[in-house]
Design a protein that fits this description.
Blueprint (H helix, E strand, L loop, with lengths): L6 H6 L7 H12 L8 H11 L24 E2 L2 E2 L13 E6 L10 E6 L2 E6 L3 E5 H8 L3 E3 L6 E2 L12 E2 L2 E3 L4 E6 L10 H12 L7 H11 L14 H5 L3 H12 L1 H14 L1
Length: 272
């Protein structure tokens, strides 16, 4: 049984005991390309150089550092669920972006973006394909100016002489980047689990024919235990014991939005 891929440990050990498969993954994460056809020792030496931190202590990579992690691949109702976690190979919508230095003379080599505790040092002046949540992290660094004089006009009504205020907000980038649009082939893929399961809910009348194990799996992907106050320290057999399938579907619909709750209510009342 192969061990779990852990890039941080491999880097700390300078890939001394890394398998060929682990080195191949590390090379792909750093370069976004398959590893070259060289022997293990030569590849190991190249990886040690590639993963040596720069002067700022950063190790820029073309993919998020956790993209090579081994993660389970759950199936629900016979269909495999795409991996939309911050670990493992991302299987959702992506954005092609080039983040630039603020000035040519800048010593910076990377910009750090985060998603659910996973930090990614994105190389500057290099085009990368960002998993959607990392793109949103970058996009929301923009400043929305909706109050300055530059976006404000004070028109005077020619008939009444009254002055009104009109503002047209503008987006100001705090980080220089070029947005090249969606990565080709990912345009119609989900951005997160809520989006994925909303689509599935529409297709299946809010999981009407899903068995109990499938409903529990969906529930546990979408929801986090709310803690002892709600008697939800863990979603285990005790938690689900007194719940009917419709109760699980109600919790799922609540996580997917008011329109999903309304759809489920209509379906339930139609059966009465």
């Amino acid at each position: 049984m192969s061990r779990k891929f852990n890039l941080a440990t491999l880097v700390a050990n300078q890939f001394a005991d890394a398998t060929r498969e682990e080195m191949n993954k590390a090379f792909e994460i750093h370069t976004n390309h398959a590893s070259p056809d060289i022997d293990d020792d030569a590849l190991r030496a190249r990886l040690v150089t590639m993963y040596t931190p720069n002067d700022e202590g950063e190790i820029p990579t073309m993919q998020p550092p956790a993209s090579g992690d081994t993660v389970p691949k759950p199936r629900v109702a016979g269909a495999r669920i795409p991996n939309l976690r911050p670990t493992g190979k991302w299987e959702g919508r992506m954005r092609r972006v080039t983040v630039h230095k603020f000035a040519e003379s800048s010593p910076d080599h990377a910009v750090t973006l985060g998603w659910e505790g996973i930090k990614w040092n994105v190389p500057l002046d290099v085009t990368v394909d960002m998993p959607w949540p990392y793109w949103q992290s970058l996009y929301h660094t923009d400043f929305i100016d909706d109050r300055s004089d530059a976006v404000t006009k004070w028109p005077v009504d020619p008939e009444t002489g009254k002055i009104s205020c009109e503002r047209t907000s503008r987006r100001i980038k705090t980080q220089r980047y070029e947005d090249h649009g969606d990565t080709p082939g990912t345009e119609n893929l989900p951005e997160d689990y809520v989006g994925y399961f909303r689509s599935e809910a529409h297709r299946t009348n809010c999981f009407e024919r899903h068995n109990r194990s499938a409903l529990m799996a969906i529930h546990n992907i979408l929801l986090e235990p709310r803690g002892p106050k709600y008697n939800e320290e863990a979603f285990n057999a005790t938690y689900f014991r007194d719940m009917k399938d419709i109760d699980i579907r109600i919790r799922i619909a609540g996580a997917l939005g008011p329109d999903m709750e309304a759809m489920l209510n209509e379906a339930v009342y139609a059966e009465v």
